[in-house]
Amino acid sequence: MSKEQISEQDRLLSLQKELSGSSKGSDIALIALFLAIIFGLAVAFFIIPDKSFSEEENRALQGAPALSSPGKFADRLISGKFTSEVAEYYADQFPLRDSFVGLKAAVVLGLGGRENNSVISAEGGRLAELPKSFSPDTVKRNTDILSRFGEEIKKSGAELTVLAAPRSADVFESFISSPRPLIYTEETRQAITSGLSGTELIDLYDILAPGVAAGEYLYYRTDHHWTTLGAYYGYCSLVESMGITPYSLEDFTPETVSEEFYGTAWSKAGMKWIAPDRMQFFRYEADGLFTTVLEGKADSAFDGFYDESYLQKKDKYAAFLSGNNGRVTVTLDHGHDAGKPREKILIIKDSFAHSMVPFLARHFDLEIIDLRYYKEPVSELIRENGISRVIAIYNYDSFVTENSFNILRISFEE
């Protein structure tokens, strides 16, 4: 090795020694900062009280897993249920969780991704919650139960009609850039149709999807529900199938009640830069003459169909009928038509039905039940109220994922 090479190596070694002090200091500072963040979050996790409900995401949060008897605890541990609850607990109660969800969404989309937490960003600021999977067995089980229920209530003179509304992912598909994710629209439609072949079915896809594709505001951009205009189209299809002429749009006065509606898809996606939705009530002169009663309790009654206290909360869609309840009764109790005989119908439903109720109430008194919360025999409710028509109003996702239809088995297993 030449003297020149040795001299060069000495200079490099000397330079490294000079820089080592400063770089070591910055490394220590970085490690200290990292440990401080971890320690701070750990301390905050135990100091900040647990939350039972996330208004941002409109869902219940996992609480601390309860310790059970040694035998049951061992079973939960072996099955993985306990560790799953622990993981969900830490994820749901993590400090600054909403901020981290938003940061993750920004990073994912910044790196060229299109979805976060199974919500995809589509053209025009639309957010579509992607179906997790398609389960033909679940659809068959649910449609079989509905069909059997329809056969059973015929014995008491009642008829069943099923109204199926597409999901936001189904109607937004034309706004999702290629390659498009699996949405299972046709598979789901076919499974519902074939499963309800002996029951009157109104599938709204061919009515709503073309309207959305043409730019009509029929589904919220940030939520999984249809808008009030979308619900109006569903109402028209339903009453026309009954031989009833629907009220025209000119018979209603749209009232914008919020320009700041952020729905479930927005909360789940973490894409905080997406603009909010506009929410409207379609008012008419006599809509305050109706009485809405929750869970059969007189002290819960209010005039009209809207609980406007929810307009000051995150879950603004719950302003329709005061959100999810096991049983809701809507009757015309005031005005010149009060007391006159009106047909009473039963609606079994998910939350898509809520914004349709004000339209249907112009024709009928309504008993409305949500099978996720109502656990009484439905056939008994039909007999007690002299109901001759039952309407099931659900979006596709309920057919694919719900287990609540099982309560209807009581009607034909008594």
Please summarize what this structure is.
The protein has helices spanning 3-47, 70-79, 81-93, 97-110, 136-153, 168-171, 185-195, 205-213, 228-241, 264-269, 357-360, 378-384, 396-401, 409-413; strands at residues 53-54, 59-60, 115-116, 119-122, 126-129, 159-165, 200-203, 253-261, 277-283, 290-294, 302-303, 327-332, 344-349, 365-369, 389-395. The chain has 414 residues and is α/β, with parallel strands linked by helices.
Q: Ranges with pLDDT <50 over ≥5 residues?
A: none
Distance between the termini: 99 Å
Strand line-up across the major sheet? 7-6-15-13-14-12-10-11
Can you tell me the number of structural domains? 3
Number of helices: 14
Instruction: Note the run of SSEs as H and E.
Output: HEEHHHEEEHEHHEHHEHEEEEEHEHEHH
Beta-strand residue percentage? 15-25%
Description:
- The protein has 414 residues and is of the alpha/beta class.
- The protein folds into three domains: 3-47; 50-95, no CATH class; 126-413, no CATH class.
- Helices cover 40% and strands 17% of the residues.
- Helix 5 (136-153) runs parallel beside helix 7 (185-195).
- The longest helix is centred in the first third of the chain and has 45 residues, at 3-47.
- It is globular and about 105 Å long.
- 32% of the residues are buried.
